[in-house]
Every structure is written in C-alpha cells, then in structure tokens.
Amino acid sequence: MYKGPALIEFPRIGNTMQGYISVSENDTLPFEVNRVYWTYYTPESIRRGGHAHYELEQILVAVAGKIIVETEMPGGLKERFILESPSVGLLLPKFCWHVMQYTHSSVQMCIANIAYEERDYIRDYNEFIKLPFAEK
Ligand code: TYD
C-alpha cells in the first residue's frame, strides 16, 4: 500500500508575548531536504496543484493564511486538510494527487526531497487513476 498524507507538528519555541520560532532539521523530517520553494499571491479563485509525483515528497506549511488541500491516493482514498498554523505541516508522499486553494494573503512553504524535474510530474488525472493500488 502507498503511504498516505500526514500532518506533522513542528516544535513551537516562544510565547504569546514575544512570538514564536518553529524549526525543522533533517533528523526530524521523513526525508533529506534538497529544495525549499514558496507560493504566494495566488488569487482565491485559483486551485493550484492538480498533479502527483513519482519521486517527490514534500511538506506544505501555511506560514501565513489558510490553505485547503484536497488529496487522493492511488486506490481512491480522498482527504481534505486545512492548514492554518505556521507550526503544522502536511506531508504529501509520492503518488499523492493534490489540489490547493489559498486565502488572499496566504504564503505556502514547501520543503521537498528532490530538485524540480518536470518529468517527475503526473499531470494527467486519467494517468493517475490507472496507477496500481499496491506499491511495487
Ligand atoms: P507547479 O508545481 O505545477 O505548481 P503548483 O503545484 O503550485 O500548481 O509549478 C508551476 C510552474 O512552476 C511549472 O511551470 C513548473 C515551475 N516550477 C519550477 O520551475 N520550479 C519549481 O521548483 C516548481 C515547484 C515549479
């Protein structure tokens, strides 16, 4: 079976008087980090994503605002996550179809295991639903 998406709690250092720091280091993440990218100024009417990956695993964090993430795994398990805390991440494993929608001022940070490669994308939903249910 494929491993499904999962929420991750990052440590929260600080207090309401001074504010907070959240941190992640390689020994507390499920993969070694090779890329960090961020998405911002996305109009509220736009749904981004709409793809899965063969090798990419990533953790999405709403460092500001709110992000609604809809996921689907091979075999049909569909889930919906609301990210609205800078100390919570959503792990999207490989083969996880995902679609994101953002509030006006939200900023999404993505922590990823590999560099960008277009050939790692599965952008055709008909191709995605043909993926075998069990991981080879
Ligand atoms: P895409 O991953 O489809 O964005 P989203 O999942 O947010 O909808 O990428 C959008 C475009 O940006 C696409 O043309 C590929 C390009 N891109 C890069 O060049 N480098 C990157 O690291 C990423 C994530 C995307």
Summarize the entry for a quick read.
With 136 residues, the chain is mainly beta.
Keywords:
136 residues, mainly beta, Jelly Rolls, five-stranded antiparallel sheet, 1 helix, 3% helix, binds thymidine-5'-diphosphate
Would you mind describing this structure in some detail?
- The protein has 136 residues and is mainly β.
- The protein has one domain (6-12, 29-128): Jelly Rolls, CATH 2.60.120.
- The chain contains 1 helix and 12 strands, in the order ββββββββββββα.
- A 5-stranded antiparallel beta sheet has the order 1-9-6-11-4, with no helix packed on it. A 5-stranded antiparallel beta sheet has the order 8-7-10-5-12. It has a two-stranded antiparallel ribbon with strand order 2-3.
- The protein starts with 5 loop residues before the first strand and ends in an 8-residue tail after the last helix.
- The mean pLDDT is 95.
- Thymidine-5'-diphosphate (TYD) is lined by residues 37, 39, 48-49, 116.
Report the sheet with the most strands, covering strand number, pairing sense and barrel closure. 5 strands, antiparallel
Molecular shape: globular
Relative helix content: under 10%
How far from one another are the termini? 9 Å
Measured on Cα atoms, how large is the radius of gyration?
A: 15 Å
Which structural category fits the helices and strands? mainly beta
CATH topology: Jelly Rolls
CATH class: Mainly Beta
CATH architecture: Sandwich
E-strand count? 12
Find the CATH superfamily: Jelly Rolls
Mean pLDDT: 95
Count of the domains = 1
Strand order of the largest sheet: 1-9-6-11-4
Q: What ligands can be seen in this structure? A: thymidine-5'-diphosphate
Low-confidence stretches: none
Strand content: over 45%
